[in-house]
Structures are given as C-alpha cells and as structure tokens.
Amino acid sequence: MLVGYSSSSEEEDSEAAAGLNSCSRKCQEEDDDNDLCPVRKKPKTEEQDIKTRLPLPGCLLAMFPDEVDTQTEDSSLHGGRVRSFKHERGNWATYVYLPYHPEEEFRELLEELLSAARAHGVDLTPQEEFHLSLSQTVVLRHHWIQPFTQSLRADLAHCKRFVCSAGKLKVYCNAEGTRTFLGMEVYTGHAQLLDLVQVVDRTMMEFRLETFYKEPSFHVSLAWCVGDLTAQMKGCLQELQRVVDEHEEGPFRLRLDGVELRCRTGNKTFRFPLET
Q1: Is 143 a catalytic residue?
Q2: Alpha-carbon dihedral of residues 247, 111, 190, 255, nearest 10 degrees?
Q3: What is the pTM of this model?
Q4: In the predicted model, what is the mean pLDDT of residues 104-129?
C-alpha cells in the first residue's frame, strides 16, 4: 500500500511554499542589514530599475524546472526509437530483469543472424545489453525509489538461484507498434521465472503499478528495428532459426545463470542477489 506517501502535487506545493518563505526571509534580512549602512539612499525609480534586472534566486528556479527536456523526446537521437510514455522530470522509467552476459560465441551468432536478416531486407540493430525482463516498464516518482527497491530486496531475499536456457527464435512487437524485436525464447527454467514474477508483482501491486503479463513469453531480445515489421521478420524466421540450430559447434543454446536480479530505474541500477 502507498500509505505514508503524499501525492506528487501536494509534495511539490509544500516544497514550493517552504522555498518561497525561505527566500522571502532571506531577502527581508538583507534589507534590514542595508538599513544600518550609512549609504545615500538611491532614488525610488533607480531602485525599481535595478530590481527588475536582478536574476531570480536559484531556490525559485529549482522549484519550477521545465517539464520536458526536448532532447529526450527527439527520436533521431535514439536511433529512431519512440518513447512508450512521455518523459517528465521526477518520473523514472523502471523495470526488473535477469541480466545475460554474452560470450564470444553468442556475439558471433548474432552477427550471422543480422547478416541473414539483411539478406531478406530486414535491417536489425543489436541490443546494447541483453537481459530477460521480469516486469513491464513502469514509472516511479523519485521519492518512491528507495521504498520500492527496499520492498523488492525483502521479497527476493529467500528466492533460490537457478539456471534457464533459451534457443528458439521468436518475433515480438511492442504495444505501440513502434519497434519490432528478434528474441530468443526460454525453454527451461520457466517455472522458476514465474515464481520470480509473482514476487516482483507483489511489490508492483504495493505501489499500484502495472504487473507483468498473465502468460509471459520469457525471452532475451537480440536485436530490433523501427516500426512494425512483424510480417517481414516472420517470413525469414525459419532461415534465422536454421542459423541457430546449425551453428559451427552444434545447436546454440543461450544459458542464463540466475544468481541475481536487477532493477533499472532511470540511470540507477540496483542488484538483488539470490540465495544459494
């Protein structure tokens, strides 16, 4: 439950009022001190002209920042990617995941997959990092981060380590139809992943955030392209799967060692080791 947390608007109003009172008292103290100085008083019109040129105190400027940084909304700066929700200061995009640390064999396979996709007219961009999602991407207010991660840590403290494997390629498209992904779906460790999702969902419900999908397809996203190219990618999926199954050293199987979960919120990453 969110008992004990005020709404963002109420908190910002109280902070603004406190800041204004603080600035007013400071200005009054400075005026009182100046009255004691034996300096010739300036004409009223000159005083008003100086006051109009003075910059606003920093405490006031900090209380009313721009709501949106226009650069964060420019898709050309992010490879054509479009945000699923509008970026606002004080809102932190947050998700929970199981990290995957790729080996050289995986990177070689990925290059072969990208080349095969290009031969079918699909230009894919490899993921910058690889992971298996255990939550949807939700929005946290900044003052929720600490209690949210504390709740996750407490709930995950007794979850056991495990291993899961992936090997079947699958095509995914986001709800907005702005990006299409080539992923590798998990075929072992599914039960353990469902247990972890239930634990993560408890924290999500505590903070009234969206829970994970009811019938999740656990996977590691390998690469993506802009727009809904589901049909084109499915058209060459069989050939891409052949690249995986006929790899040099036999069928490639992606292995994830479930030793810790992570939570990414904005530019911060929190780690939650699982029990041995």
Answers
A1: no
A2: 70
A3: 0.70
A4: 96
